[in-house]
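Anyone able to model this chain together with GEK?
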Amino acid sequence: MSDASYRDAIFSTPLDRVAQFSFDERVVACFPDMIRRSVPGYGQILGMLGLIAARHLRHGAHVYDLGCSLGAGGLALAGTLPPDAFRYTGVDLSPAMAVQARQTLATECPAHDMEVIEGDIREIDYRSSGMVVLNFTLQFLAPAERDAVIGKLFQALEPGGVLILSEKIVAEDEAENAWLVERYHDFKRANGYSELEISQKRTALENVLVPDTLAGHHERLARAGFSRAHTWFQFLNFASLIAFKDA
Ligand code: GEK
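re: yes, here you go
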């Protein structure tokens, strides 16, 4: 295994002032371990990508994976679909992530048409696409920037195209939200994170990851022009939606 298999111990020692979270080389090295242990349902959502694409993607169409990190979305699609089924572009703002994703996809799925570009999903010129995967990335944009990005993705999608949007969410009801967050911290404890790691990561993500409500996501998708959207997955305070552009 490569460096990417290191265990996440980023928040395991007391830090005087907990820095804001960023996707640097340290995070890249332990990213697969970190995301698996800290995002409930991560593997199940990835596992469904190929099945959803098999049903909704026009043969040979283009797929975006925005905020692709190490290319897990691309690996999941290539693991289910044959090389002629789709063309893939992963996009990530972090140079360290993009370099590693490019290398992994070239090694693991050489017959598939896979590219990874280092870029900002707020700024790139989108090409026409049959499917856009936005797995746990929109949440890192400032709330005021989210509408514009979803609007661009709607424009980029072909008629009949789909957007998969997976996010950490906040429940509207305060008591419900408190319960979900407490059980989420139980989930992290059960996955080996200490109290210190949980609290320091929480501080580091404050103001970096500002979650929306499920209703907020549905309203934004409708504003962008999507005629229909379903919440197809929820595990504690993490959810995935599929939005359809009319054919
Ligand atoms: C996965 N989808 O493994 N433009 C491009 N990338 C960005 C931007 C931006 N403006 N902001 C943040 N990122 C992945 C998991 S991780 C989720 C996504 C997490 C990138 C950032 O560099 C990081 O790689 C990714 O979005 C978020 O299925 O770490 O919780």
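Residues 23, 35, 67-69, 72-73, 91-94, 97, 120-122, 135-137, 140-141 surround GEK (CB under 6 Å).
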